[in-house]
Specification:
alpha/beta; eight-stranded parallel beta sheet; 23% helix
């Protein structure tokens, strides 16, 4: 990962201004510190992943210049109002769980087709007005998954009669609510390759060709991808650590094999795309 990831987990950081941030950094992890304010990130234009979970933050601010940001984790802080998300056009995953939120007005700035937010975690907050929730989420066109209740930690609105039915009926773009689909079936936790720090530069190749998988043999043999392997190995090492903020929890053993198979297929497809690019260069 080199100088593209900076991880200072549980390092007694008390101010973001004390963090020497290289402009080329794409992933910044400051989980479990004592940071009270989001500041000093104006020049971090390339930042794609920001984890400020388990700090002392009470206000969402200082993010307007982070137009490349894809994932933002502000869970386990002291936030009351959702705000300061203006301009985060590439944000796909937002975790605001375990705060004191009762005002979602800032999500109104993520309405419209130019915004890409797909996953929103809000469990363990103080949301008590279902109409306010629906108004703030309805215009987020790409939104697919919302979590308002998890592991017994929920919001007051989750205890309202017909809560699930109301949310699904009012937000037609939603396919997963609290880890369950429309029929109430559990949906396995999935980590998109686009959200794995360091791999997003490579997976863009997955969408550059419509060529079928049957052409893989034309490559003349297996393609080695040491850089991709390095990134995946680093990510899985982090995710396997229970103390790390990227740790994947609550994945039933029965789903492990399908998830691994799906990841393998995506990597094979990526290798195929790389092979095609090599062929184009030589021929």
């Amino acid at each position: 990962m080199g100088d593209k990831e900076l991880s200072l987990v549980d390092s007694n950081v008390t101010s973001l201004l004390d963090v020497h941030l290289n402009p080329s950094v794409t992933s910044l992890i400051l989980h479990c510190n004592r940071i009270p304010r989001i500041e000093g990130l104006a020049s971090a234009w390339h930042l794609r992943h920001l984890d400020l979970s388990s700090n002392l933050i009470s206000k969402i601010e200082g993010l307007s210049s982070l137009t490349s940001l894809r994932t933002l984790n502000l869970s386990c802080n002291s936030i009351i109002t959702v705000e300061g998300l203006n301009g985060l056009v590439n944000l796909t995953r937002l975790n605001l769980s375990y705060n004191q939120i009762n005002d979602l007005s800032g999500l109104l700035y993520l309405h419209g087709s130019e915004y890409k937010l797909k996953h929103l975690s809000l469990h363990s907050n103080h949301l008590d007005n279902i109409d306010h929730l629906l108004q703030c989420l309805l215009g987020i066109q790409c939104l697919r998954e919302v979590t308002l209740s998890q592991d017994g930690r929920n919001n007051p609105i989750c205890r309202s009669p017909g809560y699930r039915e109301t949310v699904f009926e009012s937000l037609p773009q939603i396919s997963v609510l609290d880890g369950l689909d429309h029929q109430g079936n559990p949906v396995p936790v999935r980590h998109s390759p686009l959200n794995i720090p360091g791999l997003e530069d490579y997976v863009d190749l997955l969408f550059t060709s419509d060529t079928s998988h049957s052409e893989v043999d034309k490559c003349g043999g297996p393609i080695t991808t040491p850089r991709i392997d390095q990134v995946l190995t680093h990510f899985h090492r982090q995710a396997d650590s229970p103390s790390h903020p990227l740790h994947i929890q609550h994945v039933p053993p029965a789903t492990a094999a399908p998830l691994e198979a799906g990841n393998e297929k995506r990597i094979r497809r990526l290798e195929h795309q790389v092979c095609q690019l090599i062929q184009q260069v030589h021929f």
